[in-house]
Sequence to fold (323 residues):
Amino acid sequence: MIFLFVVLVDPWGMLPLSPPFDRVPVTGNQRFSYPMLARSPQFDSAILGTSTSRLLRPAALDPVFGARFVNLAMNAATPFEISSLFTVFRRAHKQPKVVLLGLDFPWCATGDSYQKLTEREFPAWMYGRDRWRGYGEMFNLFTVQEAGKQFGVLTGLKRPDMGRDGYTRFVPPDSQYDPARALAHLRADGVVVPLGERTGPPETWRFPALEVLRDDLSRLPAETHRILFFTPYNHRLLAPPGSAAAVVWNECKRRVAGMARDLPHTEVVDFMLPSPITNNDGNYWDGLHYRVAVADRLARDLEAAARGETSADYRLLSGPSGP
Fold:
């Protein structure tokens, strides 16, 4: 009976024969919740990245891009996990309109390998083509728990705590913003340096995650608008000019810009620089996570950058291009 309950509720919308209930994301680990959204036909565009992109609201992006976005950015996601979710979205959407992908330090790791998984569970079975396999993954306590949460939402006994379009405000409301506390977090942060081994001149370094990114982007139709953006770290996390860390970041950005020039309809926007956004400590909860108003500002900036406009907020590393 328990197994029947779980497969009927199907908490993650993954089973081929489950009823077409109006399911919502219920699992805090987005690696379980987002494959369902990535496959949903109600969206034609996607936001991918880590928590530094999670505050981008589809409701703010939809009107400026004339699209229907789903936010698929995941907390502490690795390039492997992002690529896996990207693949699910791409297989389900043969003609996606816009793909926004936030880039931060995991993408700029150097050497022959990069971190693929974290301590957060990654359900690889959700990302493959064989959805029948899911029936063998349903009978465990965690799945029963999540089915109970989904059942609560479906029956009105529980309010959804995650957005149907993937957007969830995971920072406190602005009414609770404490500048002194935020400043304490910022002062505890240091310069972010991408991981990896580096020998020889920068142009000889290997960026393995960028190789994955190039492959993913090249599989999109030529008509799909691709926008890559380096996320706006607070100024305390930015590498000082001339430092070893700055050399890594500059080379990574150069590689991404070069990649974009080889792809149709691809722009690269750099928010990871001293700017009116990053220099203002009042824009941040901590060094990586900005406030909701800043996220909406980024949405407008991304649309402007896609049209080739300049701004003190960002630098356009690779501008608008045609097919």
About this structure: The radius of gyration is 20 Å.
